[in-house]
Design brief:
The chain is of the alpha/beta class. It has 17 helices and 17 strands. The longest helix has 29 residues. The two termini are 43 Å apart. This is FAD-binding domain-containing protein.
Length: 467
Amino acid sequence: MNGVEKPSDYPSRSTTLLRKLQNTSQSQHVPRNKATVPLSILVIGAGLGGLATAVALARRGHAVTVLEQAAMLGEVGAGIQIPPNSARLLLSWGIGPFFEGRVVEPESMTFRRWENGNAIGYTKLGSNFRETYGAPYFVIHRADFHHALCSLASQVGVKILTNSKVVEYDEHFPSVKTQDGREYAADLVVAADGVKSVARPVVMGGVDKPPIKTGFAAYRAVVNTDEMKADPDTAWLLEKPGINIWIGEDRHVMTYSIAGGKSFNMVLSHVDHTDPSTWNPEDAVKDMREHFETWDPKLRKVIHLVTKTIKWPLLSGARLSTWVSASQKLIIIGDAAHAMVPYMSQGAAMAVEDGAALAEALSIIRTKERVPNALRVFEKERMNRSYGMQSASLVNGKLWHFPDGTEQQARDCGMRAEVEGRSFVESTNQWSDPVTQLWTYGYDAEEELRQAWSSEMGLTNGQSKRI
């Protein structure tokens, strides 16, 4: 890929995946096995990953309780993308009605040159992705996504307890203790407690490996679209739903409409090696504008409509030796296990896939003694997938941030066919590159887990036999 190496663990199941996807509708609710061994399961953390996991487990017949440290359920931040690999799962679980009026389906993704906004890369989304991958490519406000998951969780019988900050894990019982002294026990504890996970060092035998600072940070902001419509220099961004990404040296800006088209989401990434504890929120808007003061004048007009912003450090999780405790009764998922930079827009999607795969693994077994087998197969498959995506995200971090010069020119040349409407066999735009696109969006977490189980158990008929 023009000098930038792709992750070595990109799978090559193109023919099988395409055949399967072409026969699958995103609206089809595929019946799945109910768990033969219904378990009592604690999920720690009611973020996007924790709620998705709780839904996946509850709909298979497990008794699921979620413990959340916050006093009220909700999410902060701005927009988030829901690509087909996670949208397909969520829609099959029944989230569709809770997405109505909240999601936007962008028609395309366009990469633009930092100084003038000229198109240098293009990916057709919309109907193209629906037909190829069996599900839409959505964008949504994080708060709306979280609300939809909360509603779905309630519908499938998940019990959510707020004001329940877990401060101690007993992996052997297994049980947890909250800050106010309450104790909860279950057959299995699933910790979706984020990058600052309390469970991770327990799983790792007492030695933590927290996510690594990447040297990048991102401003996240939302602009009311009514303010953009009055100026032709900004109104054009609203004519059709689409994702636009300006890329340049050590910086990029990703934009798209959310909240049913009422708000315009912006993520402005930039190099920053400073200590987050020194960041002054009162200076955030001014600093953000200064970072992009020489960029495309039309983009700057949108940036100057921003009145408040939040700055986030970008982290990439260390590769862990295990996600499952020695007792095999405590497991970590999501950002606790595989935090990644957002340059493939797959962080939350990986957590949704985690939940789907875990629920699938626990539905295959028919005795409680087989839970460790299910967790072992889950861990192996999900490590391969999520750490591969972590690598792909870091690749984009290099591709997008070249300074003007030979590497930047080679990258732009590698995307030119898309813009000109010509056929191509590979692209430096990972959204369009055929191999990367199929690996990213064609992956079915439930099906891949079943295949992994069959392989692990030495089955030759391709079926996920219950054992």
